[in-house]
Amino acid sequence: MKSIKGECNVECPNGCESFDAEYWTLIRGDHDAELKESLLGGELNLISCPSCGEIFYHDRDFIYFDPPKQILAFVSPKTAKENFEEKKQKMMKDFELLRKNLSEMNISYDPFYLFGIEELKALLDYDDFCNCQSEVIAACASQKGFKAVAVNPAQARLKGYPLYLPVEGSTYTAQSVKKAAQALVAQNPALTLLNAVIKDISEGKDLPARL
Ligand SMILES: [Zn+2]
């Protein structure tokens, strides 16, 4: 499934005659780096009125999908403020349909139901931050002679963990992860995502599934 454009009738904020315009209804974040960039830069679904030339954001429902990162987000427009709950019910139905139609993609994680494009930007910003720090953690782990185990991205995101967990020795156990994580944080306190891992292990919580 590729990124998809839709067409609809658009009203200009200046009250000009309405016109038909194309806009993106589905964005594959893993396939279309340019579309993702334009989303983050605030240029996605900008439409120009043919009568007065005004450029404005076409605030409509769209889906953001990045299967390798396990991100599936249904984004509803800001104008849906009053009936967001109603919208959410509809988005949940859409998700069930999508999951059935894309059974080969094995979507085993929960989607995000977001209100407005800003919430999606915040999610993608966090994801970027998490990716960067995860790369650093993997590099530091290897320097120290630890293994870096890739974990399920959706689970890691929910728990506030990095995408790789360091492991002392050869077995992926809570204690081997905790020891390695403590050693890395002692050396580099900026590796903040490991703090959540250490805290959870100390409280006896389960490790996320390996990828
Ligand atoms: Zn206009």
Task: Give a summary of the structure in a few sentences.
This protein is of the alpha/beta class and 211 residues long.
Walk me through the structure.
With 211 residues, the chain is α/β, with parallel strands linked by helices. It folds into 2 domains: 4-115, no CATH class; 126-202, no CATH class. It is 40% helix and 22% strand. It is built from 6 helices and 9 strands, in the order E-E-H-E-E-E-E-H-E-H-E-H-E-H-H. The strands form 3 sheets. Strands 1-2-5-6-7 form a 5-stranded mixed sheet, sandwiched between helices. The chain has a two-stranded antiparallel sheet with strand order 3-4. Helix 5 runs antiparallel to helix 6. The radius of gyration is 21 Å and the shape is elongated. The two termini are 23 Å apart. The mean pLDDT is 93. It binds zinc ion. Zinc ion is lined by residues 12, 14, 16, 49, 51-52, 54.
Q: What is the gyration radius calculated from CA atoms?
A: 21 Å
Q: How would you name the oligomeric state of the polypeptide chains in this document?
A: single chain
Order of helices and strands: EEHEEEEHEHEHEHH
Q: How many H/I helical runs?
A: 6
Strand order of the largest sheet: 1-2-5-6-7
What are the low-pLDDT stretches, counting only 5+ consecutive residues below 50? none
Terminal Cα span: 23 Å
Work out the helicity level: 25-40%
Enumerate the distinct ligands. Answer: zinc ion
